[in-house]
Write a structure and sequence with these properties.
Elements: E1 2-6, H1 10-18, E2 23-27, H2 42-54, E3 58-63, H3 72-85, E4 89-92, H4 95-104, E5 110-112, H5 121-129, E6 134-136, H6 143-152, E7 156-163, H7 175-180, E8 207-209, H8 214-220, E9 224-227, H9 234-249, H10 256-265, E10 271-272, H11 296-304, E11 313-321, E12 327-332, E13 338-343, E14 347-348, H12 356-363, E15 371-380, E16 384-385, H13 388-407, E17 433-437, H14 444-450, E18 455-459, H15 460-465, H16 467-475, E19 479-483, H17 493-505, E20 510-513, H18 516-524, E21 528-531, H19 540-548, E22 551-555, H20 562-567, E23 574-580, E24 583-587, E25 598-600, E26 606-612, E27 616-620, E28 624-626, E29 640-644, H21 650-662, E30 671-672
Parallel strand pairs: 1-2, 1-9, 2-3, 3-4, 4-5, 5-6, 6-7, 7-9, 8-10, 11-15, 17-18, 17-29, 18-19, 19-20, 20-21, 21-22, 22-23, 23-29, 28-30
Antiparallel strand pairs: 7-8, 11-12, 12-13, 14-16, 23-28, 24-27, 25-26, 26-27
Helix pairs in contact: 1-9, 2-3, 2-13, 4-19, 5-18, 9-10, 9-11, 14-21
Length: 681
């Protein structure tokens, strides 16, 4: 398996390479999910690619954030420079950017970031459809889920094996943006989940470590194991990379001493394998304690591991020293590249003739370079003499040429791809229709009474359990969409498929989807696709790509201003959420590992926690989004304006709709405008 290490800075990159990483991932500029790391400038990137390629290490560039239309040109410029430098792959989250990269740089490999929330075979198949070569799975999956995806995936699978665990599925977290305008989907997560709630830290998971399961992962068919930590110091990268690299190279699991060094490097009172072992619960949670920090001696030893060049590349040499002919030296690397250097012809020996041992000793002096001479073939005519300095010069010239060959970028095509925004299909001054997302069948009657010809979203499991609710809605003249679960593992697919068939038999033929996994599954079942907020629509090219994939409508991300939504070109009909407790986190388990109904922060602000399909949970915003007295959403070019009814009683649902009919302002202090009037970083 490939070992992929984090490189949040040039020093961390060197630490990773010198300690045995097969590949590194790094950010350049502002379009990566760790914008607070030191990251790399474009000049740094050129050095990084050359440094790594000479030493046989791949470089993956992270362009894995959601982007606005105005940011796409700069992101493409960064990708163009990376492509010309020979970056080995680009990690992406944004569908619009991925589509543009695939068209403009057809030879540049694309990898799906964990920010795409791929957690099933359907998600991997979707990424393959986009032309990606690899996808990084969600960290919540257990061994059986990973093995199933690996066994059937059309593309390579990468999994995290060490480092921080987010409480929320990556790509589905809006907590940091909502409470502080710093978006995790834009690379600036402020980690509010690590703060106290309910008098403890029920959103703070221990770091994961799958040291001890490496051979199992390799047997599954995992292509790459990934270490988290672009925000961590180089010494951490050195220690963790070394432990995993040695274990992989020697075909074993880490020793107890190596496990102890992992914990010293960084842990939150130990590690967890809870998700991998399907043993969720309170034991998975922890915080960083002062006692967990290592002493300076530990860091000093770690620094020493990468301050001196190690011979990482085995080369073979072929030399010829014959009378009357130029001295020649050819150096070949494991990939078959060959560099040749020529020297002056040898002279007849006046005293002691040159021996094979003499030549071998001089040509093998590769200290201070990345090379190790693994074999030497020598054609030496007896009785000749060559100065040691001449052999040294010959060796240096050949290795310098080999270095140039190894660092030379590959030849790749670069096509033109229009950045002109697609034409809109929506008029900005057309009032939108109403859509209602319900969480309970009891909410349906007051909604139908107030808005009988609206669009009604019913959870898929509710449709199967309450076919009479569907019939009631259809009889009233409403259109019904089946809202699929945000997360649906492969083991849940048979039940989901049966529920889709039941919905279709009732006359429901449109699916509302929050992840690409759900979209691919619903499309395969013959449903029309409407994208929800979890797909991260921030730019027109994402909408254009969704239309090409067969989507009929999309919900724009609520992490942007209404004025931005109005200006957004809309090649696909769009809708936006205008009322409701916005979903902030989608969790594989309840906070703290046990059921709870709410989370109270240090200021006693309370966030509702509601169940989600599959025994999962969802954290909702503390205040309800309410735009009843605002006009901007009516002229934002929306096809539909959506109400999220989650914790509301049926009576409250009716009152909310009446407020919107009458444009009644919400009660003071009881609501939020969300992010529709705030700048999100």
């Amino acid at each position: 398996m490939e070992l992929l290490s984090p490189a949040g800075s040039p020093d961390a990159l060197v630490a990773a390479v010198q300690n045995g990483a097969n590949a590194v991932y790094l950010g350049c500029g502002d379009f990566n999910a760790r914008r607070r790391a030191k990251n790399f400038s474009l000049d740094d990137l050129a050095w990084a690619v050359s440094y790594c390629h000479v030493r046989g290490v791949k470089v993956y560039l992270t362009l894995n954030t959601l982007l606005a239309d105005k940011e796409l040109p700069a992101a493409l410029d960064t990708a163009a420079r990376a492509d010309r430098l020979g970056v080995d792959a680009v990690l992406v989250q944004d569908l619009g950017l991925a589509s543009l990269l695939r068209r403009r740089f057809p030879d540049l490999p694309l990898h799906g970031s964990t920010q795409m929330t791929v957690h099933s075979l359907a998600g991997a198949e979707f990424c393959a459809q986009l032309g990606m070569e690899r996808v990084v799975l969600s960290r919540e999956l257990d061994r059986d889920a990973i093995a199933h995806i690996c066994a059937h995936s059309p593309i390579e699978i990468e999994v995290f094996v060490h480092g921080a665990l987010c409480m929320c599925y990556s790509g589905q977290c809006f907590l940091s943006a909502m409470v502080g305008t710093r978006s995790g989907n834009r690379g600036l997560c402020a980690q509010p989940c690590r703060l106290p709630y309910n008098g403890g830290n029920p959103l703070s998971l221990k770091d994961m470590s799958l040291a001890g399961h490496l051979r199992e992962l390799e047997d599954m068919g995992v292509a790459c194991v990934k270490l988290e930590g672009r925000m961590k110091r180089p010494e951490y990268v050195a220690v963790v990379t070394s432990v995993y690299a040695v274990a992989l190279r020697e075909g074993r699991e880490p020793t107890q001493a190596e496990l102890d060094s992992l914990q010293k490097a960084f842990s939150r009172s130990g590690f967890t394998q809870g998700y991998f072992n399907n043993k969720k619960g309170p034991a998975m949670f922890g915080t960083r304690a002062e006692a967990d920090a290592p002493d300076e001696g530990f860091y000093a030893a770690a620094r020493a591991s990468y301050q001196k060049e190690r011979p990482l590349v085995d080369v073979t040499m072929t030399a010829a020293i014959r009378s009357g002919q130029e001295t020649t030296l050819a150096v070949r690397d494991p990939q078959g590249r060959e560099a040749t250097a020529l020297g002056l012809p040898p002279e007849a020996a006046r005293t002691r003739p040159l021996t094979e041992a003499d030549v071998g000793e001089q040509l093998s002096k590769t200290g201070g370079t990345p090379y190790h001479v693994a074999g030497l073939t020598l054609d030496l005519e007896p009785g000749l003499s060559v100065p040691k300095s001449a052999l040294n010069t010959l060796r240096r010239a050949a290795l310098e040429e080999l270095t140039a060959l190894r660092s030379a970028p590959p030849r790749r095509r670069e096509e033109t791809a229009s950045l002109l925004p697609p034409e809109s299909v929506c008029a900005a001054d057309t009032p939108p229709a109403w859509a209602f997302s319900l969480s309970d069948a009891a909410q349906l009657p007051p909604v139908l009474t107030a808005a009988p010809h609206s669009l009604i979203d019913l959870p898929l499991h509710l449709i199967a359990a309450h076919p009479e609710a569907v019939q009631q809605a259809l009889n009233a003249g409403a259109e019904v969409r089946a809202a699929l679960p945000t997360i649906l593992w492969d083991r849940e697919v048979p039940d989901i498929s049966a529920q889709l068939r039941a919905a279709a038999s009732l006359g429901v033929h449109t699916a509302l989807v929050n992840t690409w996994d759900a979209a691919w599954l619903a499309k395969g079942a013959g449903f029309a696709l409407h994208g929800d907020y979890g797909l991260g629509v921030l730019n027109a090219h994402t909408l254009e790509a969704m239309a090409a994939l067969g989507f009929a409508r999309a919900t724009v991300s609520f992490e942007q201003k209404l004025s931005t939504i109005r200006r957004l070109p809309k090649p696909l009909p769009v809708e936006a959420i205008i009322y409701g407790h916005l979903p902030l986190m989608t969790l594989e388990q309840f906070p703290g590992g046990k059921p709870c109904g709410s989370l109270a922060d240090r200021k006693n602000v309370t966030f509702p926690v509601v169940p989600a399909p599959g025994g999962r949970a969802r954290v909702l915003n503390s205040q309800v989004l309410d735009l009843a007295d605002k006009e901007e959403w009516k002229t934002a070019g929306l096809t539909a304006a959506r109400f999220l009814f989650t914790v509301e009683t049926p009576q409250e649902c009716g009152k909310v709709i009446k407020h919107y009919v009458d444009s009644v302002p919400p009660a003071p202090g009881s609501f939020t405008r969300g992010l529709y009037y705030r700048d999100v970083e």
